[in-house]
Amino acid sequence: MVTDWRVFWVPPERLRGGLRAGSLEGWEDLPARETAVGVRAGDPIFLSPDYRVDPLLSLYGQYSKFRKYQPETKRNYATDIALLLTFLWARGKSWVETVAKDLEDYEDWRRFAPGNPTQIGGSKWDRELAAFLGLFTWAKREGWISANPVTMRQVVTPRGEVVETAEARAKDARPSNVHWLTPRTWRLWVDVGLRGHTRDGVPEPGWVGRLEDRNVAFVRMLTSSGLRRLEGGSLLTFEVPKIPLSGCRYCHGKVAGAVTRSKVGRTFYASTGAVGDVESYMEASRAWAVRKAQRAGRYERLPELRLVTKLTRGLKPKVHWVDQDGVMGERELDKLTWEDRILLFEEGPHGPEPLWLWLNEQGLPFQPHSWEGVFRAANKRCERILTPPKHLHRDPHKVYAPYATPHSARHSFALFMLVVLNEVMDRKYGLTPEERRDFRLLYGDPWFMVQGLLGHASRETTVKHYLAPVRNLQLESMLATSEEPVDAPMPDLDRVFARVARDADGIQDIDARLAPRVSAA
User: Fold this and answer.
1) What is the CB neighbour count within 10 angstroms for residue 205?
2) Residues 6+ apart with CB under 8 A from 125
3) What pLDDT digit, counting tens, does each position of 1-10 carry?
4) What is this structure's pTM?
5) 3 state SS for 322-363
6) Apex CA 512: angle with CA 507 and CA 513, to 5°?
7) φ, ψ dihedrals at 273, nearest 5°
8) Are 307 and 347 in contact (CB under 8 A)?
9) Running DSSP on this structure, what letter comes out for residue 393?
10) Which tens digits make up the pLDDT trace of 227-276?
């Protein structure tokens, strides 16, 4: 017997004519009926254990604020709500009958009950509470419930503003599960997890690197630029920065506002090495996947495809296209969402080619959330290869293998740039304390520069969450007393990062030489 609520998502192809006549008897007009009631692609459909669709929850899925959430946020919130619905169903209650005591009992089960084998922490509970608050606030305003079961209280912010917050917010919430990796640890993670190397630094016999060049290029792009997963994962081919002829170490590009969290476009910088990896991928496995897809006719069978006819330049470049029905459209490049971008193609010598940069083996766009699977596989491989067998699944406080997520790249970029900018100011330019003060007045200190590179509106976000391990360290004096020789154009900072990791919590620094080599007799 089914006892769980489930969430389904309206797929794009169903609203684009993907449902063919006769494919579901009696429901041939489903797309038209969904359009008539305002259903859009990406809306959630909540199905109860007795296989009934809740009409009020469907209306919430069409709520403008909910629709504006990022796809990942919508998926998380809908899943959180479905879990609460299942809990209430076991009590014989509809969600519109929820009272504060129900939420108190639910929190106790989720977080503290000894009988719950999968208790959650404070940060996860706060996210679930935010999902419930959004639902019940909407239901109260629309008149579907008489009182909001989420108890609120007033608090004073550090700026002196009085705001309302949920009474049940966790007291033990921690910042997001973030991870910092030093540069040499990233190199180890890439070599072992993505390139199939062994502890000895050579490819494992029988290693088959499926799209190895793509995965390495993506990770190096993120670690050298600080782009978020969605920002880097939705790049178009013509948005890849060009390597300058002047021999500069970094090249700049522009990330579109529609794919950023703040909805404001910004300039990003990527190392020439990372850009070179992307260009190699485009010329090798990507070109091969596109040609294979063209021969198989995959692009012609797509439910929707927009063929770009023109790309204007200037302050607000526009993309012009024509779809499969001959209908022309245009939109500012900065306002193209990732869902819009995934539909864009250009006419190549052998037929349509996707403008979406990252492709799977079938030559089709690799969706941003799919990168999580690439990182999971790399983490498992690093653990298997680098952890001595007798320590597998033991010694939780002794780590032999690095662990990374797409967002780890962004946090690690922030740490790297902070250290490098301090090095540039303190060592390369040999600034005296007075000169350093003048430099800060003119250009801002390294913390401010990193804030700009990450695109944060608040300095507090940069310092509190992204650079938490080192916010209390005196990097200037530590770097000034470092013994590394100053090379040109940039010294090897592995030893500096090792010192930072030793003096701060949360930074992974694993030497590639995990065990001393035994010389032959």
Assistant:
1) 7
2) 107, 110, 111, 168, 170, 173
3) 567 999 988 7
4) 0.72
5) EECCCCEEEEEHHHCCHHHHCCEEEEECCEEEECECCECCCC
6) 125
7) -65, -45
8) yes
9) T
10) 999 999 999 999 999 877 666 778 889 999 999 988 888 888 888 999 99
